[in-house]
């Protein structure tokens, strides 16, 4: 019944180890079917080399299992809340990639230093603050989603313009129109995090990219008069 959705989710998950974004059973990707009100997600603790499309779990937006023989990812409630809150997103990825996690553990936004960063988002990549003790001791995974949403609200960010976030002491979450785009954004985030770290090692006083160059690179790819790539 959900075979196409499961296959989309499976293929996206298999990209994580291929891209060097996860080790062992770290991380997860989900893919949504808005018409049916469900999403597919990796099962908890299943090694990628053993994963098959059949193993993918189907859940509703309240994180209830609709179909599957395994327990879904431990982050399922986070995915569910983001899908329920942001109806523009079609896939979510969560990794523990090295450089992105390092910035998250430091509790710092990733500064926008160059055009590689500006090609994908026009501002610093935000780091949502660590959860309160009450949130951690309560419905932790659900509250993780709330913390991301609240951080975007407080910073005036749109999930369509900023498709990635760090969560302090935890790691990165990314999303996109599809599960494949969410994984793409995870890879971009990791590379931008690595570049920023190397930049600060070379020159700790490096200024952010100048506004005209920042906006030029973002707008030529994402603006109303964008001209990057080929016409569809």
Description:
There is one protein chain. This protein is an alpha+beta fold. The protein has one domain (about 5-220): L-fuculose-1-phosphate Aldolase (3-Layer(aba) Sandwich). The chain has 8 helices and 8 strands. It has helices at about 5-20, 75-85, 100-105, 115-120, 135, 140-155, 180-200, 210-220; strands spanning about 30-35, 40, 55-60, 65, 90-95, 125-130, 165, 170-175. An 8-stranded mixed beta sheet has the order 4-3-2-1-5-8-7-6, sandwiched between helices. A hairpin with a 3-residue loop joins strand 7 (about 165) and strand 8. Helix 1 (about 5-20) packs parallel to helix 7 (about 180-200) and helix 3 crosses helix 7. The longest helix has 24 residues, at about 180-200. It is globular, with a radius of gyration of 18 Å. It starts with a helix and ends in a 10-residue tail after the last helix. The mean pLDDT is about 95.
